[in-house]
Specification:
Length: 206
């Protein structure tokens, strides 16, 4: 998929937004090939939104509870994101699954970063589930979102060791350091080189 440069990114967040911050920092360099045109969230009063505001990037919030059905929320989220005409939509700690209306609009250019080495440990507690299982390496995965839960084609992965005395917090923090670098590297390549998906295999370039 060729992408015009600089690529327009809409980033979705639900929490502290350190992955968003890594993208905001990277996009400050015009050579990066992308810029964040809006940041959206499913809740107010989070550091992720404050990071966007400090960077002068427009923000929006669409709370599930403000809509009569999940589908209406999904449609409203899709409409709002579409208004910013993104080339790529990045879910960076956005703790909501999107549905058909959103995927119909942004499928193939909606990516999500997850704190585990997929297909192991999908869901909302990737780092904790990996620690509990007793794995010796953990990591993060960037993938193209499809209709499953963390099942889409994989763009990039990064690996970190699990230490004997790790807690969920220390492991997740180690993962996030590697995850931010992976996200910045992969999104930059998507923007500058484009990418193709054939039989689940994602390749950068045309
Ligand atoms: C990241 O580790 C991201 O992978 C995870 O939330 C964290 C957000 O951190 N997402 C998921 O678990 C989605 N299933 P951040 O708000 O500091 O970027």
């Amino acid at each position: 998929m060729p992408i015009p440069t600089p690529a327009r990114l809409v980033v979705l967040v639900s929490g502290s937004g350190t992955n968003l911050q890594a993208l905001l920092d990277a996009t400050a360099d015009p050579a990066y090939g992308a810029r964040v045109v809006a940041v959206g969230a499913d809740r107010e009063d989070i550091e992720g939104l404050r990071r966007a505001e400090r960077a002068g990037v427009p923000t929006f919030v669409r709370r599930v509870g403000h809509f009569t059905t999940r589908e209406h929320w999904d449609q409203a989220l899709a409409d709002t994101v579409a208004a910013f005409e993104p080339d790529l939509v990045v879910s960076a700690g956005f703790m909501k699954l999107v549905g058909e209306p959103f995927l119909a609009r942004f499928g193939g250019r909606f990516v999500n970063t997850h704190p585990a080495l997929l297909p192991a440990f999908p869901g909302t507690n990737g780092a904790g589930d990996a620690l509990e299982y007793g794995v010796k390496v953990a990591g993060a995965t960037l993938f193209v979102v499809d209709s499953g839960v963390d099942t889409g084609p994989i763009l990039a992965q990064t690996v970190v060791p699990v230490e004997d005395d790790d807690t969920v917090e220390t492991l997740h923090e180690r993962i996030k350091v590697a995850e931010r670098q992976m996200l910045v590297d992969a999104v930059g390549r998507m923007a500058r080189e484009g990418f193709t998906i054939t039989d689940r295999k994602v390749r950068f370039g045309q």
